[in-house]
Amino acid sequence: MVNMKLLIGLTVLGFLSLTYCCEDPAQGAINLAQNGAATQSSDVHPILGTASKAIDRNNQTNYHIGSCTHTKLEDNPWWKLDLLKSYRITQVIITNREDCCKERLQGAEIRVGDSPNVRDNPICATIMDVSSGARIPLCCKGMEGRYVGVFIPAPSSIVTLCEVEVYGQKIEPGPRVCW
Ligand SMILES: *[C@@H]1O[C@H](CO)[C@@H](O)[C@H](O)[C@H]1NC(C)=O
């Protein structure tokens, strides 16, 4: 009986810690993206749509207002954030464009790791559903990395992001906070 209770307890605890990591970040959590540096595979325009528009603290979803990124139409486009050191990433929240074209992010891969080459890093999540609103929360379950990339593994594609928020913790010795 005791063992059963222990088992149930551990299962509930495991579930809670898992959901904790996938929920919206705690109020006041620091968005790591704001101290990073953004680049992308190409710029469709020298001012409108540059890579830093995804970390400009403005989640405006109309591209023409000038707060969203936009690569050229190309094969395997990507956007990348360099956090300057490795973090244990819990959530990545992407704000999609809404004035048109939200389906362009369908199938985009969020990749986290220490390689500056986006496609060499493991996938933390894939955007499966762009229909449920501009704000797309993705769970990285404590995956470690200095780079957070958004990669579309397809020909003739465009990466457009209106905001990217990244939440996580410093990597410190000791037990993992988040599995
Ligand atoms: C943009 O940010 C505001 C303020 O935090 C929030 O209320 C709103 O829902 C956000 N919009 C999107 C599309 O995420």
TrEMBL record:
GO biological process, alphabetically ordered: regulation of cellular defense response; regulation of complement activation, lectin pathway
Protein name: Fucolectin tachylectin-4 pentraxin-1 domain-containing protein
Matching PANTHER family: FTP DOMAIN-CONTAINING PROTEIN, FUCOLECTIN TACHYLECTIN-4 PENTRAXIN-1 DOMAIN-CONTAINING PROTEIN
Annotated signal sequence range: 1-21
Subunit-level organization: Homotrimer.
Gene Ontology molecular function terms on file: fucose binding; metal ion binding
Superkingdom in the source lineage: Eukaryota
Domain Fucolectin tachylectin-4 pentraxin-1: 29-175
Similarity comment: Belongs to the fucolectin family.
Keywords from the UniProt entry: Calcium, Disulfide bond, Lectin, Metal-binding, Signal
InterPro entries the UniProt entry points to: BG_Antigen-Binding_Lectin (IPR051941), FTP1 (IPR006585), Galactose-bd-like_sf (IPR008979)
Entry-linked SMART domains: FTP
